[in-house]
Amino acid sequence: MNKNPVKKIVIPVLLMTALGIASAYGGCFLVQQAGRMSSDNSGTGKTNEPVPASERNAVMAVMPESEAFSFQATPSSLPVSSAASESDLPESGPTVFNLMYSYPEGADHSDPLQSYGGMAFRNLFNLDADWYSDVLSSSDRKPEEVALHLERSRESILGKYNVLDDAQNPADPNSWVVGKWGNIRIDIEDGNGNKTDASFNAKQILAMASVYTYYHDRNDYDSFTGYAEKLWNSTRSYRVSMGDVYYDSGCITEEKKAEAVLKRNSPASASEAEAVFTNSDASGGGLPQSEAAAAAQENKAGPTEVLSGETAQSGSANESEDKNNSADFALENTGTASSSDAATLSGGFPACPGHIDLSITAVVYGMEGTENLFTKDKTGNSKSNFNDSWHGWTKDKIEEAKILFNADWYKDYNISVSDFSMRTPLSEGEISHYLNGLPENIPEKRKTVIDCALRSVGRIPYYFGGKPSYAGMEKNHFYKIIEPDYKGRIFKGLDCSGWVSWVYWTALGNHLPVESTSGLISLGHSVRKEELQPGDIIIRAGDPETIGHVMIFLKWNDDGTAQCIHETGGKINNAAVSDITADWNYRNLID
């Protein structure tokens, strides 16, 4: 029999690592992701970076060419090709992913993702990727927006005056909204409320769909995908909750406050400053908090979970009136403050304007426990779908689904689900920690580059040869399934040099003229190791045996290692912050 090369497809499953940060929950809502079957198959970027010779053929294997099963003449049956005889095919059965051997006419039988089973596989993982992105996008919403969705009062998100926030008016306590999250916590639970790392259940659902359709119409692609999509929709959700406003010992330095006073053109004399802060509260060292905000802070009621369609109960904070006379502490713009005046005035502003924590809990049902995929399956358990061979998810049918799920799909069907760990995005507190560690005189451009790079951590998957199509996140469609790279990674993402290009493009609006390590190594101008500044790049050129790599420099550690932000493969397969020893090439692309 003729042998054809068959692509080995490896489907990574994302695992979200929960952050160990506790918060007091003030309310939450449940969002059920509306499912849709999609087969977006975007193109991949190209690169001149070399691939190690030992890995160039890592995704190739040889196996007999497969033919589709014969379809019965039903309206929902799809046409199949006939490339081999029936005797060449594995015997169908309840523990076999039968649609993996069924191909549309004209499909490439060397590509398992072009089979009907592969199409269903890809579509369900696309749904998972979209849902995962939606979960992460909750952390991009500001506290004011989340509070609105949770139907929480405005007073519940009011803190103290933030001199660094241009949107706040020192004369209007109602404008003192906490603008950023303090900490972000992401947890994943199964249907029984137990913590789990299994953020995706696509393979389990596919196994169940294969067993179910085997006893109904094993060759009906529409029935298979309809069953899988319905079960997928009913077995995942996520809820978001936010805590109350709290304060730390001081997150805004006197230097930062003085800079803000100069920028805001504050009162030019200490006597005016004394009038401004007549009513300052001793604990916060700043403008007085409105009584409504104080009431929200002192409300110690437990978390209120708000489900879809329910309304949050208003607390005492809603009934409070703001009785502060804002005119008593309104800033008068009488002239430009000098540096000494700014230092004097800055002492009166709060050292901490307040923080709010965000908690995201994703619920993904698995096969185990009392609340599981089998108990949630209304289609499979409906008596209207019973026949001589099927009476719902009985013990023997459950066992068949588990056998198929636990099978080696890489060996049997040339597609595989392999786990890799993935970091959750950095919280606002973590980002602020890194930014506050930057040199005080760092140019704004460099700070913007670092901020953009930090916000990409955990959000952009690694994909060899991946280059950005646009600045920003939305139009690049990260996490969509595309053709595998040489390591079998199939989520649309960026490689290290593509990520550097994306950061500069997104942060500064400058689309770099080159997007490979070999090109970046000659871009900008060379700097010595001791001249490195945050935002510069550290780069190593590739050769026929090694792959080049590039990182964005953050700072030097006390032990002499460099703290860098980069897009990396390996176990992380995402953007990350790492400490490295790299005596490579150093380039300045900013100044």
Tell me what the structure shows.
This protein is an alpha+beta fold and 591 residues long. The protein is flat and about 80 Å long. It has 16 helices and 14 strands. The termini are far apart. α5 (254-264) packs across α8 and α14 (444-455) packs across α15 (496-508). The protein is 26% helix and 15% strand. The strands form four sheets. Strands 9-14-10-11-12-13 form a six-stranded antiparallel β-sheet. Strands 3-6-7-5 form a four-stranded mixed β-sheet. It folds into three domains: 3-20 and 28-135 and 187-238 and 360-421, no CATH class; 143-179 and 252-351, no CATH class; 437-588, endopeptidase fold (from Nostoc punctiforme) (Alpha-Beta Complex), CATH 3.90.1720. The protein has helices at residues 116-137, 143-149, 202-214, 221-234, 254-264, 270-276, 291-298, 339-346, 373-376, 378-381, 395-406, 409-413, 428-436, 444-455, 496-508, 517-520; strands at 3-7, 9-16, 28-31, 60-64, 181-189, 236-242, 356-364, 415-422, 525-526, 537-540, 549-556, 562-568, 574-580, 585-588.
Map the helices and strands.
Layout: E1 3-7, E2 9-16, E3 28-31, E4 60-64, H1 116-137, H2 143-149, E5 181-189, H3 202-214, H4 221-234, E6 236-242, H5 254-264, H6 270-276, H7 291-298, H8 339-346, E7 356-364, H9 373-376, H10 378-381, H11 395-406, H12 409-413, E8 415-422, H13 428-436, H14 444-455, H15 496-508, H16 517-520, E9 525-526, E10 537-540, E11 549-556, E12 562-568, E13 574-580, E14 585-588
Parallel strand pairs: 2-8, 5-7
Antiparallel strand pairs: 1-4, 3-6, 6-7, 9-14, 10-11, 10-14, 11-12, 12-13
Helix pairs in contact: 1-4, 3-4, 3-11, 5-8, 14-15
